[in-house]
Amino acid sequence: MDPSRRSVLGAGLFSAAAVVPGWPDVHDRLQRVQEDPHTRIGLPEVSAVISMTEHMSDLDDKFGGRMARPMAAAFLVNTIVPALRATAGEEVKNALRSAAADHLYLTGYMAMDEREDGLAQRYYTKALELAGSAGDHLTYCTTLRGMSVQAVDLGHGPLALRLADAAAAASPQAGPRMLAFLTGQQAHAAAQTGDRAGALQRLKAAETAMDKAESRAKAFGSYDPSAMNYHIGQVRYELGDIAGSIESMELADRLREPAYRRTRVRYNAMIAERKLAVGRLEEACVDWNGVLDDYPLVQSGRCDDRVRIMLSSLRPHLGNAHAREAYERGRALLRTA
Predict the structure, then answer these.
(1) Which of 4, 91, 320, 322 is the 20 to 30 A CA-CA neighbour of 123?
(2) For 87-91, 225-229, 234-238, 321-325, which range has the lowest pLDDT when averaged over its residues?
(3) String of b and e for 63-90 (b: at least 16 CB within 10 Å)?
(4) Is residue 320 part of a domain?
(5) How buried is residue 105: exposed, middle or buried, by Cβ count under 10 Å (0-12/13-18/19+)?
(6) Whole-angstrom Cα distance, residue 108 to residue 283?
């Protein structure tokens, strides 16, 4: 099976007019696939899908979507799709649909990281269908939130807010960590639309929920104080507080686990961009050089974008030796990538 970007769902362009699907629209409405009577699966096969998805998520965090997604796409087509067609009891089928939805969500995130944004939307939509069919609110809400992250990253604030609100509305009895996970994204999207009061209100709710989550035993999931401070930094930036956003983003970096290399590249590049914006050129160059230490190890379209922004930002400052050094280094590495 050729796992190229056009072989699974097709590419296409990101649609800012995408319809926000509600839970009733996807719950129990997955089109029935033709069952293969010669193949039967059980919970061990479901566990294998979950384990592979977790492993590919680790690879994505360290090395970027462009490296990991072909493997995820091949596993989807060669293993998950045949399993979805296999004979199984209803409990196993629902567990598999849930695991498959999570894998599709991850694969969509990888496609977004490649800057294949239309393809990412298609993966996300299929993830919603499978999550709804399995009755899996968690993956459904997480996927809607992922779609909001994609939209806000592309500058589609109103769509990002609608998606974030839909994710929060569909989450029944969310615990404090999940509430912070959803509300932090609502705050970021609201800030991008210029809704200062709404953004700050949601940010306060996210911080309160995060405090409650951290006072308990650690729960599974990646939303942690580092992610919370990232959202604080993004809200501050969208509302015009660049210095405050730098402070929050630097705290997020200090709290971040070392394994998240791709995140470190992207977010530290943002810190450098913002330091340059407030006149801290040489500090920005130090940060950009740190970014360039990690950049060759990550295969990510979004990281490529940040290096391109670095080059365009430094071009007017090439009379400064620090800026010129970072510029020449970045240009050589981007050309290699």
Answers:
(1) 91
(2) 87-91
(3) bbbbbbbbbbbbbbeebbeebbebebee
(4) yes
(5) buried
(6) 35
Pair 179, 164: CB distance under 8 Å:
no
Amino acid at 127: A
**Which two three-digit tokens encode residue 87?**
């004979």
Q: Residue with structure tokens 């498959």? A: 100
Burial of residue 32 (number of CB atoms within 10 Å: 0-12, 13-18, 19+): exposed
Sequence-separated (6 or more) residues with CB below 8 Å from residue 217: none
83: domain range? 37-135
Give yes or no for a contact between 325 and 89, defined as CB atoms under 8 angstroms apart: no
CA distance 295 to 55: 21
Return the biggest CA–CA distance within the chain. 71
- Of the residues 114, 135, 156, which one is the last residue of a structural domain? 135
Look at residues 257, 23, 319 and name the one whose alpha carbon lies nearest to residue 144. Answer: 23
**Between the ranges 134-143, 164-173, 306-315, where is the mean pLDDT highest?**
306-315
Tokens 């992207």, residue? Answer: 266
Structural domain includes residue 29? no
10 Å Cβ neighbour count for 207? 19
Calpha distance 32→274 (Å, rounded): 50
Give the residue with greater pLDDT, 157 vs 221. Answer: 157
Ramachandran class of 279: left when φ > 0, alpha when ψ lies in -120 to 50, beta otherwise: left
